[in-house]
Amino acid sequence: MPIDIQVKSFLFSFFFGLIFSVLLRLNYRYMYKGSMILKIVITMLFVVDNVLIYFIILRKLNNGIIHNYFLLTILFGFVIMELIFKKIPFDLRGKK
């Protein structure tokens, strides 16, 4: 795989990790409160939607080639955003 495609895939995976963290915090009240069936349905839809979005965009970038380090980059972006949220005085989860 050419280096420019790898860099684009790394950057996309990193920013996807950031965005996934934000979306998880926004959907927190729907995924962790309410009836058990509603929690399961919302969680499944959230995960399936995010996985589909990631793979569709990755397919456009590098023909859908997935490497372990792309997944590690998503995790790295997620952890970075969680650390940023610890520094921000407000919480997107709806708690006070």
Keywords:
single chain; 4 helices
3D structure, described in words:
This protein is mainly α and 96 residues long. The N and C termini lie far apart (47 Å). The protein has 4 helices and no strands. Helices cover 79% and strands 0% of the residues. The mean pLDDT is 87.
Q: Tell me, rounded to a whole number, the average pLDDT.
A: 87
Helix content: over 70%
Structural class: mainly alpha
Give the assembly state of these chains: single chain
Give the termini separation.
47 Å
Number of helices: 4
What gyration radius follows from the Cα positions, in whole Å?
Answer: 15 Å
Low-confidence stretches: none
Cα shape: flat
Total beta-strand segments: 0
Give the topology string: H per helix, E per strand.
HHHH
β-strand percent reads under 5%
Task: Please give the largest β-sheet.
Answer: none
Give a short summary of the structure:
The chain has 96 residues and is mainly alpha-helical.
Describe the secondary structure blueprint for this structure.
Layout: H1 3-26, H2 28-32, H3 36-62, H4 68-87
Helix pairs in contact: 1-3, 1-4
